[in-house]
Amino acid sequence: MALKDVIDGPRNEIGLSEVVQALSAQFGERFQTGKAHREQHAHSTSYLPAQLPDGVVFVESGKEVQAIVRLCAHHKVPIIGFGAGTSLEGQVNAASGGICVDFTWMNKVLRVSPEDLDCTVEPGVTREALNVYLRDTGLFFPIDPGANASIGGMASTRASGTNAVRYGTMKDNVLALTVVTANGEEITTAQRARKSSAGYDLTRLFVGAEGTLGLITSITLRLQGIPEKIGGGVCGFPSLEDACNAVITTIQLGIPVARIELLDQMQMRACNAYSKLTYPEQPTLFVEFHGTDEAVALYSRQFAAIAADFGCTDFRYTEDAEERAQLWKARHNAYWASRALAPHLAGLSTDVCVPISRLADCVAETQADIAAEGFLAPIVGHAGDGNFHVLVLFDDKSEEDVARVEAFTERLSARALAMQGTCTGEHGIGQGKMRYLEAELGAAIPAMRAVKQALDPDNIFNPGKIFRL
Amino acid sequence: MALKDVIDGPRNEIGLSEVVQALSAQFGERFQTGKAHREQHAHSTSYLPAQLPDGVVFVESGKEVQAIVRLCAHHKVPIIGFGAGTSLEGQVNAASGGICVDFTWMNKVLRVSPEDLDCTVEPGVTREALNVYLRDTGLFFPIDPGANASIGGMASTRASGTNAVRYGTMKDNVLALTVVTANGEEITTAQRARKSSAGYDLTRLFVGAEGTLGLITSITLRLQGIPEKIGGGVCGFPSLEDACNAVITTIQLGIPVARIELLDQMQMRACNAYSKLTYPEQPTLFVEFHGTDEAVALYSRQFAAIAADFGCTDFRYTEDAEERAQLWKARHNAYWASRALAPHLAGLSTDVCVPISRLADCVAETQADIAAEGFLAPIVGHAGDGNFHVLVLFDDKSEEDVARVEAFTERLSARALAMQGTCTGEHGIGQGKMRYLEAELGAAIPAMRAVKQALDPDNIFNPGKIFRL
Prior knowledge:
The structure is a homodimer.
Chain A: H1 13-27, E1 31-32, H2 35-40, E2 55-58, H3 62-75, E3 79-82, E4 99-102, E5 109-113, E6 118-121, H4 127-134, E7 139-140, H5 151-156, H6 164-167, H7 170-173, E8 174-180, E9 186-188, H8 202-206, E10 215-222, E11 224-225, E12 229-236, H9 240-252, E13 257-263, H10 265-275, E14 284-291, H11 293-309, E15 316-318, H12 321-327, H13 329-332, H14 334-340, E16 346-353, H15 359-373, E17 379-382, E18 387-394, H16 399-418, H17 434-441, H18 445-455
Parallel strand pairs in A: 2-4, 3-4
Antiparallel strand pairs in A: 1-2, 5-6, 6-10, 7-11, 8-9, 8-10, 12-14, 12-15, 13-14, 13-17, 16-18, 17-18
């Protein structure tokens, strides 16, 4: 990619060598400067080229994080936080070099309070590990961005995913954070109460800041009771508009659908081919309901009636876990099914989010754009939120292809903005969407910049991301 | 009150006279400096003594707000936003004098999108006016702090109230804001999509900032479909613990209760006396369910079973609107019923919020404290959130009484903090709780202060609130 937005800031070589020496002395084997480690930590699910850090330190405590921040701040050396490396917009790239702080080994669940439906975890805990840990408590953590991301990374990128329509995004599910700020202090952003109006909402300032304002060292999360019953179903619609109207009606009636996912015709074709399924190749909704036996039965009946109103003639539904997994197989394998359409091509995963009344329009216009370009680019969406993803398959060795994909994503973002939507529902800005943020919220960027400069005056935290300083 | 926290900063007399002259010229009758107007705009529901602004300007547009901010910024004169004057912790006091910007006449609903369940309003729209406006659309705005507050004020204080257990607080229901910042620019904090990960979450930074970072000029809100059915009920419990355990179990099972309010024995006594009711004087829960006919029937059956498990023998429930109003009369009149216990005394309304597992302990210890002091101080709580209010009746002419009430609220706050709760669930910090915020989040105050100084370098927006500069 041309990477118009990536800033290769000046590297601070003198400071760096001091920091590398000090970290080697303090952390021994837990500080790595070999190329393999550095490459691995600039490698993410992103389509953007890797920018390697100068060293990777595997931290084990908040105290260690404080020491590293003090050291790097003193030498004005960049610090990039690293969770599971599943971000999509170059968030973990070391744009000006510096030290990658890897939280993999800070992976303890520090506390679970079943009565309060909350817990506190270290940032390296992955969402799957957390849910395995919680299983015996009857609770679960609902945010599911697909990848087995770390909780720290999910907080930093304001992740959401399939369950957000029912349970909200990370901003709604983080109760409090501890964060190491640029002066090396560790601050607590909130107590554990479920609501508070005590002071500025620093919790939500750090959630989604992509590591540019501080390093998160613990996260207090809201949890949910594991539903007594989960029901899931699949229904195809005559048109995209019908499928979207079924979604809007469901949301308007307040049916608490837990997931409602839209797969377009090309995505269904890819899934059928990949998973040897025989779904009709039409716009299809995958739905899931959580609740008591009676509640789930009720919601699914209500939804089936809505789906029928919009032309779904074959709502296939089950409350059996295995059958549900089978029914939902197409959705679960959507990413790999798409990649399998052309295994030799690279994939660019992007997302936008629009008011749900515009979802059908935005998807239809995007499909027309894809057809006009002749792209292989299936669409899958978290339809209840108006959020959808396009995975564009393209030859990243071809300059012409790269230019066409860049122009396509630019049009996609502009289309979403024109519909009062956002250039990213859940992937974040990172390096890849900086110019779209300018188009979206340009007048607000000076305020964001002022906040950044106030909290990180030497620009040590993840420089070169979100907006230009 | 001794008002330990109130800062009477130095007044900027020279700047003020320039500003007063300019505003008189520009706004004519819409700028008032008479004592009656100034007194009215420092008068709130607060127990704190009034600090009058030097003038009150009734604005009609964002452009006017920009002009006023530019003028005041140039002369470094304080600006205090004013909605309905229902805040409780001295938020609208003019601690260092200055200009009160009254939003009463900026009261237009700018846009409603029924399909997207959202709307945009000017800050002076009250929540009751908004709901009247919305009635024909089949939608409603759920946040209900009791008072008929303005939406701008509710956003500024991060208000919540009885419905928060189901619908969240203002932070969850504001999608975007326009805000006039210290340089007089008007910025938009977000687009209208239901979720976004585009840049810093400025929306939630301004929500709850109590007017100290800028003046909100429009608010985009999430709306809800008016439920097909509303069911309400009342049940008394043998003990506070039983009532709280019924709440915890309800929340844990994921029953989407719309309101679940706890009234203690003294509150029930006050309500019986005031509204000529005959409820047993025991800890009592008032509950409400929203949904389809079937869903509400289901939720209420499930709740009744839980209540019975914890000793409620007489769950009185109805789906008839008039009967429900009658049943809930005690809750609706709680404030005035409490005041009527001793009409000659002043009332101090305070709130704390704790993890729900500690709600019974916190209320019980507070009741014991009230009994030891011999106070008349009924308790009413938004139990599903762990949030409760104490209305302490006291003689504000007696120094001894004032000192005892101050010591009591200090103990209440310390008790909530010791239980990992917050010194305020929904009233905010204002002037009254500045020292409690220090106790609660002291280490984070430097970060809050840095944000304040970055966005409002001359401290013109509502100075002397939340924390010391």
